[in-house]
Amino acid sequence: MDVNYPWLSRLFQPKNPIFWILVALNLVSLALSHIAQNYPLNTLGTWVITICALLNAVISAVLAWRLVNS
Q1: Cα(69)–Cα(35) distance, rounded to whole angstroms?
Q2: In whole angstroms, what is the distance from residue 54 CA to residue 28 CA?
Q3: What is the 3-state secondary structure (H, E, C) of 30-59?
Q4: Whole-prediction pTM
Q5: What does the alpha-carbon distance between residue 70 and residue 12 come to, in Å, rounded to a whole number?
Q6: Residue 12, phi-psi category: left (phi > 0), alpha (psi -120 to 50), beta (remainder)
Q7: Chunked mean pLDDT (size 10), the chain, 70 residues
Q8: Which of 30, 17, 20, 19 is CA-nearest to residue 56?
């Protein structure tokens, strides 16, 4: 697996706390998408979900980048 996908072994690090934060952020992303798709939201609710989802995506990308480059 390391020959074809060396970045995958750098991303999957169960002993690193950043890995578990990424797992938690993915669960938050799952919950946000579930809320956005299954509940009728007014304009404020839509903006709150959108901003939270964007922040979640940015934080996840930064942490994943740090994990791969560590």
Answers
A1: 33
A2: 12
A3: HHHHHHHHHCCCCHHHHHHHHHHHHHHHHH
A4: 0.80
A5: 12
A6: beta
A7: 64 87 96 95 96 97 90
A8: 30
